[in-house]
Write a structure and sequence with these properties.
homodimer, Aminopeptidase, Alpha-Beta Plaits, hydrolase (chains A, B), Amidase_Cbmase (chains A, B)
């Protein structure tokens, strides 16, 4: 093995960026951005492109029951759990070219550097692309990684349908047949990786504002989703006196005020978003019968989420503007704190390139949230312009991304040389 | 002419109620209620039924450019402006059997009493059914009455399209052809009536709560409609810190709080309703880019409406949660105070049957709001159960409705005998 920084220096920046641009052509939208919905033709083309790159580097290609793809650079001891690096290649319907793709192509760049430098390592290294991280075609997302980590069962995932009624199972069957035809080897039983590393765009404004090209992510916020129903009585807007009203909109307005107050009473970095809101019957001159809205509540500390959950439930037991409330938690994903040792390794690598970089907790989900339950896991972020993602305007600077990939390579080299096998 | 109360006594209550039930069969919905959208087949059948009744009573049938139908009981002096009584036969998509229909059938009951008693009157009496009061198929409503009163031009009305793309003009052509085929006479130039009387269900809870079978309506509240846009910036619910947010939902929430405060600061009987509300992109984990909502604002006093209009415009000039606001008044209908003499005549008639009846200002629109600009106009209300209308559960008690029709007959007799010709 060479010195700690040699693999980072060996990363071919031009080739890395050319790979990013090659991936951006698969499912390209005019004038920019991509559409590569999970398991559609473009998503399958992206898998094929990845496997072709791996073969050229002497990697073997593997796939599993969920269509996750693994490029394996063999180690001296093939029985050792592999070091896993990657992210996902699927996208939102009208997306940028970096969300997910960056992490896969970065893993490829690191493996390319290992291959080109003919570095011999004891432990296998694998680049992974997880199936359906976005959940845009089949909800919920992170299908491949959650199944791989044993967090979600296959039957539930396979039963999901897209808007055209196509099941995940049907779409997956085509994908698996293509992977087999392209010479990938089927893996019956998922391996437990030695560790998982994921580089991703921040999807937020912090790194750009601080001028840092990369940072360590120490964990992922927990997220509670709620659906709230406020039930009143539809009535004529002109003829119904104030005192006789059970106005579901006004009930929702009062309740939201109380929810906001509960959140701000904590004086903490809670993220509280009401992104969906609908009235029934939704007519200009009819008092609303029902208001329905969602809450997206995030915090890195499970105790804060529990406190707010209890407060929300108590508020839902009251009447608001003579309306009753039904509040249901539709999803609770606990916060994840990444492995301390792995975070420390990434921290050292970041500091070698950018001593002032902050540490962030991810506000968004990533495949890493599931892998963290299976093996030591950590992430790196690189900035995206104005924090914009899930939009063709999503943009990263090549200079930032290159630094991030070199930090990743730096950390990989360290893990391959110093971690106990 | 007979004494004042004789026409009221002469109203055939059984026949009146049988007519209500006959109309309820036209466009009947199972298990109850009706669907009789303006100018559809059922609405045309309702017109035909009305003309058949009129012919049986010796009335002539007339129609005009908007498909308004008039049954005319001739007076001794056909050159005198007619006393007009009526309402509308069209309905909301899923409606009760009384809204509108009651007023037309009540007019028919009065004319039947005149005919059966062989009462001779100097002035003609006409029963009218106005086209498209509801505005459910072709918006806005009150097409027939607003055109008749010279308040809206024909071209605008004729250009309206229903959800299937059919124009008012196309639907009306079929209706007019049927009316002609059924022997109705076309009236080129609208007459200016001597007066217009409309009996209608209250569509509110007041009369039922006070146990009054009927009351005088002294006017109709003015109504301002607004469309409000709150413009923020869509962003990731998980990754965007509070300080970086321009959350259109939270902007709308804050603005609505201020609007409510402006309304309640007046400490008055303002009716303020937000019945439509929508977010873009309306996704659980995306901060709203835009909130759009409507305001329905009503009051009998134009000065109160003007004060609130100015307050609303001032609030819209501010930023709310870093979001900008666009507030547009999409419709302003000034309050109407009905003719004092006509109100007094109805008041006397009501007192003869129900001395404790209140006087109400209508919170809902009616055809009378337009007629009031053309000729002396006033209305009667009869209670509907729980104030429910625009719903198959709309219900009136026969005993209340019969009293209301007799009050109407009482007033008509008074107008035919004592009003100056």
């Amino acid at each position: 093995m060479q010195t700690s920084s040699s693999l980072a220096r060996a990363v071919d920046g031009d080739r890395f960026w050319a790979d990013i641009e090659a991936q951006a052509k698969i499912g390209a939208l005019p004038p920019r951005g991509i559409r590569r919905l999970a398991l559609d033709d473009q998503d399958n083309r992206a898998r094929r492109w990845l496997m072709d790159q791996g073969k050229a580097l002497g990697c073997s290609a593997h796939y599993d029951d969920m269509g996750n793809v693994f490029l394996r650079r063999e180690g001296q001891d093939p029985s050792l759990p592999p070091l896993l690096i990657g992210s996902h290649l699927d996208s939102q319907p009208s997306a940028g070219a970096y969300d997910g793709t960056l992490g896969v192509v970065a893993g490829l760049a690191v493996v390319r550097a290992l291959a080109e430098q003919q570095i011999v390592h004891k432990r296998p290294v694998e680049v992974v692309s997880w199936t359906n991280e976005e959940g845009a075609r089949f909800a919920p997302g992170a299908s491949g990684s959650s199944w791989f980590a044993g967090r979600r069962d296959a039957e539930t995932i396979l039963a999901a349908r897209d808007d055209d009624g196509v099941t995940f199972r049907e779409a997956l069957t085509d994908c698996l047949a293509l992977l087999e035809a392209q010479g990938a080897q089927f893996r019956d039983i998922p391996v437990v990786p030695h560790a998982f590393l994921e580089l991703h765009i921040e999807q937020g404004p912090v790194l750009e504002a601080q001028g840092a090209p990369v940072c360590v992510v120490t964990g992922i916020q927990g997220v509670n989703w709620y659906e709230v129903e406020v039930n009143g009585q539809a009535n004529h807007a002109g003829t119904t006196p104030e005192a006789s009203r059970r106005d579901a909109f006004m009930g929702a307005h009062a309740l939201v005020g109380a929810l906001k107050q509960a959140v701000s009473a904590l004086n903490d970095q809670v993220r509280f978003t009401i992104g969906k809101f609908a009235l029934t019957p939704n007519s200009v001159n009819t008092i609303a019968q029902q208001a329905r809205f969602t809450i997206d509540l995030r915090h890195p500390d499970p105790a804060v989420l529990d406190t707010l959950d209890a407060a929300f439930q108590r508020l839902a037991e009251q009447e608001w503007s003579n309306c009753t409330v039904r509040l249901e938690a539709t999803s609770k994903v606990a916060p994840v704190a990444f492995d301390h040792h792995l975070v420390a390794v990434l921290d050292d690598a970041v500091k070698a390139f950018c001593p002032q970089a902050p540490r962030l907790v991810s506000g968004a989900f990533h495949d890493a949230i599931h892998l963290a339950h299976l093996c030591p896991t950590a992430m790196l972020f690189t900035p995206c312009r104005a924090g914009i993602s899930h939009h063709p305007d999503e943009h990263i600077e090549r200079v930032d991304a290159e630094v991030a990939v070199r930090v990743l390579a730096h950390a990989v080299e360290r893990l391959l040389t110093t971690r106990k096998d």
